[in-house]
Specification:
Strand 1 (6-11), helix 1 and strand 2 (37-39) form a beta-alpha-beta unit. Helix 1 (16-28) crosses helix 6. With 208 residues, this protein is of the alpha/beta class. It contains 6 helices and 8 strands; from the N terminus they run E-H-E-H-E-E-H-E-H-E-E-H-E-H. It folds into 2 domains: 6-129 and 164-182, Rossmann fold; 131-163, no CATH class. It is globular. It has helices spanning 16-28, 47-52, 69-79, 108-116, 138-151, 166-182; strands at residues 6-11, 37-39, 55-63, 66-67, 86-92, 123-127, 130-132, 160-162.
């Protein structure tokens, strides 16, 4: 029977981080690892639930050069755990579409998040997101077009480009499964894992 001992969370505005988290969950399921994606804009996990998990996976989008506030709050809370579980940190941003920008060394957003919260993740990667101007409001569209102009990206307001390397996402699921096995307790050791506390609802919203 699959055990719920991987706590999987995401922070998103346009839904791509949710899709990535769901793809990872789908990759883990055939290996007997249960990981239900939870939206940090809807729930605020209790520290006791995080501490009880064998591994925590966070898929966090970057908007206008900064991680989303709910992801920042989550990492700040995670940092306070006395004995934190293994952490997998995935930063979703359009900068990662460029060669060499998917690593801690090459991606400034991922690197700064790790340094700011003094994290020691077992795995940390930046994953390119999706550019879809039609989903943005007028102001967001203009701001993102300006950023794309500065970084050599597409500025056509009709552009819709999925930069996410889904084969890499599948590989990340394999790496998480390998880490899960590596840090598994010896056979016969009882697990005392509490489910993620969903009672602390921040706001109920539908993620598009």
């Amino acid at each position: 029977m699959a055990r719920i001992d991987v706590a999987l969370f995401y922070a998103t505005r346009d839904g791509q981080s949710r899709r990535i988290a769901e793809r990872i969950a789908s990759g883990l399921a055939p290996r007997g690892i249960s990981a239900v994606p939870h939206d940090l804009a809807v729930i605020s996990p209790a520290s006791s639930s995080l501490a009880a998990a064998r591994m925590v996976v966070l898929v966090a989008a970057v908007r206008y050069g900064a991680p989303l506030p709910e992801a920042e709050q989550f990492l700040a809370s995670f940092r306070t755990l006395r004995e934190p579980p293994q952490l997998v940190l995935l930063s979703v941003n359009l900068t990662a579409r460029k060669p060499g920008k998917d690593t801690v060394q090459g991606n400034p957003y991922l690197r700064k998040s790790i340094a700011r919260h003094r994290l020691t993740p077992a795995l940390a990667l930046a994953i390119a997101g999706r550019l879809d101007y039609s989903r943005y409001g007028w102001l967001d569209r203009q701001l993102i077009r300006f950023i794309m102009l500065l970084t050599g990206g597409p500025t056509d307001p009709k552009a819709c480009i999925d930069y996410t390397p889904w084969d890499l996402v599948d590989d990340v699921a394999l790496q998480i499964a390998a880490l899960h096995e590596r840090f598994a307790p010896p056979k016969g050791t009882p697990l005392n894992l509490n489910p993620v506390d969903l009672s602390q609802t921040k706001r109920d919203r539908q993620c598009l």
